[in-house]
Amino acid sequence: MSNKLNKQQYVENFIKSFAAVESQMEPFKEHKRDLRKEYVENSWLTREELSMAVKAYRMLKNDDDLEKFNEIFEQVSKTVGV
Fold it and tell me: Is residue 9 domain-shared with residue 33, that is, in the same domain?
């Protein structure tokens, strides 16, 4: 028998690994949902403000265009009143 796995075995291994990662991530996903919910329920930020803040975060994380980031930051600032 060959040591090489066939496609079906690769798919099965991938699904098992993917499922394990997904299950480990779920508590963190729940925490993110709870965090957003808390900010909205306490009227600290609106859903729109949260969405813009997340966009700004992702842009910074991905080293996106600084000019584009500034536009989003200005929108957030106007909305929040900073």
Answer: yes
pTM: 0.62
Which is more confidently placed, 16 or 59?
16
C-alpha 3/C-alpha 62 separation (Å) is 40
> Which CA distances in Å does 40 have to 37, 55, 61, 62, 73?
5, 17, 24, 26, 19
* Residues 3 and 36 both lie in one domain: yes
What is the token pair recorded at 37? Answer: 């919910």
Cα distance between residue 8 and residue 12, in whole Å: 6
Helix axes 7-41, 47-61, angle to 10 degrees: 130
